[in-house]
Write a structure and sequence with these properties.
The protein has one helix spanning 94-104, and strands at 13-17, 24-25, 28-29, 33-38, 44-49, 56-61, 67-72, 81-86. With 105 residues, it is mostly beta strands. Strand 7 and strand 8 form a beta hairpin.
Length: 105
Amino acid sequence: MLLEPHYIPDHRGYFAGQDDGIVTVAGQGAVGNLYVFDARTMLLVQRARSLASGHYLVPYLDPARRYVLMARHPQGHYEPVCYDQLRPANNLTISEQREVWRAWQ
């Protein structure tokens, strides 16, 4: 999980790749680069990398904002996948998010 210094630790919003929302290549979980943009300004707010299993966690997002989430293959072999106007989940505390991330390791 890559964290940039401008993140606000009080923001509990997050995106998590699990179940059918993981990063995949040919139907299997895969490593991918994830980029989160503010949907209004299109500024990059955060980036992350999924695990080999395809699971990912992008924490510290403002749950009141909307985002664009884009996943790209590290070598560019596949077209990016992008989702617009997403609101982050906020049903887990930051500690609970860390526990989920540890369980995926």
